[in-house]
Amino acid sequence: MNGNPIIEGFIEAIELIVTxxxxxxxxxxxxLYISLTATFVATLIALPIxxxxxxxxxxxxxxxxxxxxxxxxxxxxxxxxxxxxxxxxIGPFGFLRLLYTxxxxxxxxxxxxxxxxxxxxxxxxxGIDRDKRYxxxxxxxxxxxxxxxxxxxxxxxxxxxxxxxxxxxIAEVGTVMIVGGNIRGATRVxxxxxxxxxxxxxxxxxIALGIILLGVALGVNIVLSLVQRR
Amino acid sequence: MKTNATLLTAxxxxxxxxxxxxxxxTSPAPGGNETPGAGATTAPASGGxxxxxxxxxxxxxxxxxxxxxxxxxxxxxxxxxxIAQGTGQSIDSGRRxxxxxxxxxxxxxxxxxIDDGYGINPRCIAYNYFIIVGPESDPAGIANMxxxxxxxxxxxxxxxxxxxxxxxxxxxxxxxxNQEKVLWEEAGYGYDTEIIDAGAWYVEAGKGMGDTLILAxxxxxxxxxxxxxxxxxxxxxxxxxxxxxxxELLNRYSAIAVNPEMHPDVNAEGAADFINWLISDETKQMxxxxxxxxxxxxxxxxxxxPECTEPPFNCxxxxxxxx
Amino acid sequence: MAxxxxxxxxxxxxxxxxxxxxxxxxxxxxxxxxIGPSGSGxxxxxxxxxxxxxxxxxxxxxFGIDTIADRGSWLDLRRRMGMLFQRPIVFxxxxxxxxxxxxxxxxxPRDDIDxxxxxxLEAVGLSRYIKSRATDLSGGEQxxxxxxxxxxxxxxxxxxxxxxxxxDPTSTATIExxxxxxxxxxxxxxxxxxxxxxQGQRLAHRVGVMLEGMxxxxxxxxxxxxxxxxxRIARFVGVQNIVPGRVVSRSDGLTVVExxxxxxxxxxxxxxxxxxxxxxxxxxxxxxxEPGHEEAENLFPATVTAIEPTAPxxxxxxxxxxxxxxxxxxxxxxxxxLREGIEVWVSLQxxxxxxxxxxxxxxxxxxx
Lengths: 230, 323, 368
Description:
Helix content of chain A is 77%, strand content 0%. Chain A has 11 helices and no strands. Chain A starts with a helix and ends with a helix.
């Protein structure tokens, strides 16, 4: 224990970031890649389904929506465990050999944020008030045109939901640790690297990665507030 | 609708997409020689070039694996992927066929793994010793005792609530944890019945070796550690080795391949190649020298024949695997 | 010819029945005013007539087409109509894109859209905002955008749901002027709902009064305002005096009604024995000296009991056996030197006294 490890850690962390330390850069890029892909895939799945839930009246619709809202807070380790069991060699999708790969992590994060994206899509579309829907109908929109106009009108709220989903994906550690295995050079991402390096007392690397993670979260929030101001 | 807002949206989405694509292209690059599959969602786990190894946190935390990986990858182009888990979990990963081989240190669990038909071609690689580390003031007064005596004394001090006496257990079914259990049993206590609920002095960390050492350091408690991890963490710890002698503290590391007859998908050939590389003299020399520069003494002692076939090791360490 | 014919329209939301058996017919080329208090079902009725939502029961034909039998025709019919809502609704896009929406739904050629949108914005005085984001405009400007958006589609029937309820006088005047002109020049049929009686009187050829989910009375606005069919309508159209009485005789086209010992003449044939007299405050004249008595006129002395200014008028309550409220201009009140306690002469033409049957249980309880 020499000097103050926190201050030294910070100084070294800044150095690691400024000098674009290859390990830091690699982990950051991988983190962004996995979470962006997961967000993208989740968006492709959740948006149309969310829109369907909103536009179609069916029995148990309220139950579906409140279930989705409950799943917002789906514990990441539970998703991790389930995806792990499904993707493991003994599980039904073991043949895909996705466990301990970035692909498996993308699957896990996608599953993690789909309820959030679906719920927020429904909420965003519900945010279009009744009078606006009447106006669209009154202007002579066909059913499809109505749907398209409402979606276009809710685009910023939907985008805000997508950003929130990305924020949740990149910041979570539970699923990627279990499903990814934190393999150096293959599945190690910002959060798992921070956990590992902290356990190895490499505080400076942890702090550097932590600063980057905070930066990403901050960036997401800035874009989010820009979007919500619309 | 052609509005600024739509343009902005389109712009952001485009940037995100480009980022995603770039990341897809570049993420394998920093690793040097990862397989193309590493970045794709359909990465074949047992593709010829990837070898997945479940291993113990105590090996990962020393930095030995990183060094072995670097050398092996540059020699052969094989992508070694180490998944650091406790020994118990690692062996389970092997049983499920989620990995191609395991690198562990719990002889009893290893034997079970092999007897059940999941593990083949075990080769012992190296050993060091477990040590009992604790605060320099040694409040329980166990310095220079035999390990079993030390555990008995710790138990007595702990249950008497002697000030400053606490013991941190890994509590994660790792090799080190298994070794700890063996020591409690040898000291005459039933682990499940007497130790786990022995009182506030007995703390289960549920974490890897490095974390456990740091936790013990924060609490100024005793713990059982492998020598290698302790040495690699020593500069960040106030804890000192209190008990470091005794045959019970032997810590043997072995590599065991996963049986392809149980899991046809595993990379059996890669596992055999890697094990053969591990038991080669050059590699053993490298393992034997690892840490000397940094810690003043090696962290591991490689095993050579015929020493390894005799007690207390009783294992195979030199016969290459033929496939 | 009736362009819209509705019979027995019923509409419920959940357990709440908003419309009960509404009958209404709208003539081609007229401006029909729907007046009624908030919550009386005006907006719901307009939405049903515009085929935005279906009624639960009833018959509805629009442009001579039975919409109940022919659900497939709704989109086409709806595209021949337009509706402007009470709250200004604009979409999060440019003013141009907002106004173009209806035309784009109809897949109009681009050149047409461009020309019509520009003309329409010119007409409502918003050309300079053509590229602005519509949500950045003021409420009045947004409502004008919304009006242009409807008008570019050249609707044959225009529904206006309290279109000026929250607007400044200038925007209100602009919108009223446009509606009147379109009705006159393009023969556009207009149905406008409003709770502003003056607006109803100003714009509409014919007025329908909606109360509690039903059309209570339809007719020329003079008829509605001076000859309401019942007490509720009278109250709603702002009749100050509803005085119960009993019919005592009928001769020479004049009905004599006795109320609190005073006999009052009315030209209305007696609808029942027990009646209520409906008298608008502005039809009561006050004089300091006894004026010459004219034919078919009620003339009697009274005492001023209360004076309540409601600029530019003054509500003067006089006592003459029963209480009456007269509406006089502030200037007239000044000329007369009105103050509480003085004696005045009250004159009231017999044709300004409208009689309705007395409501059950409403006997002598309320003089309005």
